[in-house]
Design a protein that fits this description.
The protein has 110 residues and is α/β, with parallel strands linked by helices. It has one domain: MurE/MurF, N-terminal domain (Udp-n-acetylmuramoylalanyl-d-glutamate--2,6- Diaminopimelate Ligase, Chain: A, domain 1). The protein is built from three helices and six strands. The strands form two sheets. A four-stranded parallel sheet has the order 3-4-5-6. Strands 1-2 form a two-stranded antiparallel sheet. α2 links the parallel β4 and β5.
Length: 110
């Protein structure tokens, strides 16, 4: 279980949020969101994840990372960014570097 500060995620994007909160994990599918998770609204070829932000909050999402074009207002933490995918990549890299063990070994092949 990952626990990290939402303020830290927002600050990586140059955004200041006033409410502090913590999250357990990121979700790309609003159907799998559980309390304390962060919902990431990705825009796909067939479905726009922004349609499901309200559903994610209803299921207890601690925050949502959305595109800056998203204009609906919520009382929950909404972090508007230029590129949701890029934010996920940056957050994953930072979390891995911060929490990884001293040695990481990868085995590939057949």
């Amino acid at each position: 279980m990952i626990t990290d500060s939402l303020k830290k995620i927002a600050e990586t994007q140059g955004i200041s949020i006033t409410r502090e909160g913590f999250f357990r994990r990121f979700h790309l599918d609003s159907r799998t969101v559980q309390p304390g998770d962060v919902y990431c609204a990705l825009e796909g070829a067939k479905v726009d994840g922004h349609q499901f932000v309200e559903e994610a909050f209803a299921k207890g999402a601690a925050a949502a990372i959305v595109n800056k074009k998203y204009s609906k207002k919520h009382s929950e933490v909404v972090i508007p960014v230029d590129d949701v995918t890029e934010v996920l990549q940056i957050a994953a890299k930072e979390m891995f570097e911060e929490k990884r063990p001293g040695l990481v070994i990868g085995v590939t092949g057949r």
